[in-house]
Amino acid sequence: MRLSQTPVSICLIACLTIVLLSFQPAVAGEEASVSGALKVNGKTVALPYVYVYALEKGFYDENDPTWKILFVGHAVEERNLDKPVWDSAYVELGLTRTAEFGEQPELQVYSQSIRFSADAGGNISGGSYPKVEIESAGPERFAGRIYLPEEQKLFDDAFQYDFTFSAPLSDPDAPLGDPLPADGGEPGKAYLAWVAALHAGDIGRLQKLVPAEMASRFEGAEGKQGLEMMQAMTPTEVKVLGGSSDGQTAILKVEGVMDGVKVGGEVTLERRGEHWLATKSAW
Fold first, then answer.
1. Rounded to an integer, what distance in angstroms lies between the CA atom of residue 38 and that of residue 61?
2. Model confidence over 122-142: pLDDT tens digits?
3. What pLDDT is attached to residue 260?
4. What spatial distance separates the first Cα and last Cα of the chain, rounded to whole Å?
5. Rounded to whole angstroms, how far apart are CA atoms 84 and 267?
6. CB-based burial of residue 197 (10 Å sphere; 0-12 exposed, 13-18 middle, 19+ buried)?
7. What is the pLDDT of residue 82?
8. Which residues, listed in sequence order, are joined to residue 66 by a DSSP beta bridge?
9. Residue 213 exposure: Cα atoms within 13 Å on the Cβ side
10. Hey, which residues does 146 pair with through a beta bridge?
11. Can you say whether the dihedral through the CA atoms of 144, 1, 269, 18 is positive or negative?
């Protein structure tokens, strides 16, 4: 579980390329299924994909088994499940097995977040939590029903949902391809060279670390502004702790110092010709 999510990928890309409910069964990947829908303000929103993944630490107690369940309008890459899904309608729920409210551990919903339109809608956070009827809670598969028995009202919005689902547990931190050496191999060296040149403000070195057609993006006032932004968003004293790669994409486990505090993170690099370019980062 990451400490925080930093939209470094946006910065890098910008700088370098400056029911009641309707039940219609829908397949969410080869091994997952979900039926049901979200209804908001009288409109039905189809969410045909479902994903479940476990968190490293519990919400009330770090030892409580805890999961996130995402019902979403489009397919999401496994490694991106623990990042915000801003571009699609969704219902995201936090679920934990805890003894916080009784002598015996019970399943509890501790968070609820809803987005009901990808282009012209809004977001709901909180409200009355749903009822949970779980048939299976891992370790390999999650299945059951999660529903709001009555329409809920929160501020100006009225909403209700009812989902019956079955899904294998996903792993946003799963390795990609083969393991890399402890130093990250070629992708690791490329990333450290990038960070060193970045914090040195050495435009010439940075230009050599990207394809020729991108080199000019570091020049001029806009290039300087982009450079300063990336410097502010990139930790210093960065170390590579290993990672994995399929030859075209590499995932590095890294640590560094941000505002005097040691942070851990994950960096994604893509191969572009002879270069490895950092395209995403979460610290």
1. 31
2. 788 878 899 999 998 878 899
3. 93
4. 10
5. 16
6. middle
7. 82
8. 96
9. 3
10. 132, 163
11. positive
pLDDT band at 103 (very low <50, low <70, confident <90, very high): confident
Q: What are phi and psi of 60, to 5 degrees?
A: -85, -45
In one-letter notation, the amino acid at residue 283 is W
pLDDT for 138: 76
Domains and CATH numbers, the chain: 10-14+175-282 (3.10.450), 31-170 (no CATH)
